[in-house]
């Protein structure tokens, strides 16, 4: 995958947990990552892990309610969005993901049970996002979706 460095605010990570995905994105590409979680402890641990991994200056970690968090809107559009949250919230957030994802941008959706993937795929297809990859590991699936570079022409 190309670096998310071009255009927009770099990368966004929702549901940061311990910040592993935020660190994984910013280390090789040296891009700023906005990381948001509803749990204050997850935000604290992300900041600690960012410092331990030498990327503290590139990770903006903040508590908040997903796309409603002010810092998220300030740095959009994003070339890359990663999310490690439950399937139902992921599906509900699909319209906001599209609005925050740059044209040609990619979203990586993790933390899904295999039986939940169809629901999440459909929610994102409804927004005009295309499934690029499906990565099953045991009972879990990660989905990669992409926003087309151009607006679809209605005919």
Question: Descriptors for this entry?
Answer:
155 residues; seven-stranded mixed β-sheet; 32% helix; 32% strand
Can you give a write-up of this model?
- The protein is α/β, with parallel strands linked by helices and 155 residues long.
- Strand 1, helix 1 and strand 2 form a beta-alpha-beta unit.
- The mean pLDDT is 90.
- The radius of gyration is 15 Å and the shape is globular.
- 32% of the residues lie in helices and 32% in strands.
- The protein has a seven-stranded mixed sheet, sandwiched between helices.
- The protein has helices spanning 20-29, 40-52, 70-74, 87-92, 94-100, 117-125; strands spanning 11-14, 33-37, 59-63, 78-84, 101-113, 130-137, 140-146.
- The chain starts with 10 loop residues before the first strand and ends in a 9-residue tail after the last strand.
Write the layout of secondary structure elements.
Layout lengths: L10 E4 L5 H10 L3 E5 L2 H13 L6 E5 L6 H5 L3 E7 L2 H6 L1 H7 E13 L3 H9 L4 E8 L2 E7 L9
Parallel strand pairs: 1-2, 1-4, 2-3, 4-5
Antiparallel strand pairs: 5-7, 6-7
Summarize the structure.
This protein is an alpha/beta fold and 155 residues long. The protein has helices at residues 20-29, 40-52, 70-74, 87-92, 94-100, 117-125, and strands spanning 11-14, 33-37, 59-63, 78-84, 101-113, 130-137, 140-146.
């Amino acid at each position: 995958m190309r670096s998310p460095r071009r255009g927009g605010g770099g990368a966004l990570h929702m549901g940061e947990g311990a910040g592993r995905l935020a660190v994984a994105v910013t280390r090789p590409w040296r891009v700023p990552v906005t990381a948001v979680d509803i749990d204050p402890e997850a935000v604290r641990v992300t900041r600690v892990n960012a410092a331990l991994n030498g990327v503290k200056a590139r990770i903006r970690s903040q508590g908040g309610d997903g796309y409603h968090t002010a810092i998220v809107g300030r740095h959009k559009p994003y070339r890359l969005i990663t999310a490690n949250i439950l399937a139902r919230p992921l599906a509900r957030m699909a319209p906001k993901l599209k609005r925050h994802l740059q044209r040609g941008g990619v979203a990586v959706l993790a933390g899904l049970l295999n039986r939940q993937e169809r629901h999440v795929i459909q929610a994102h297809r409804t927004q005009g996002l295309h499934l690029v990859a499906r990565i099953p590991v045991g009972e879990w699936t990660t989905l990669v979706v992409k926003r087309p570079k151009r607006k679809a022409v209605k005919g």
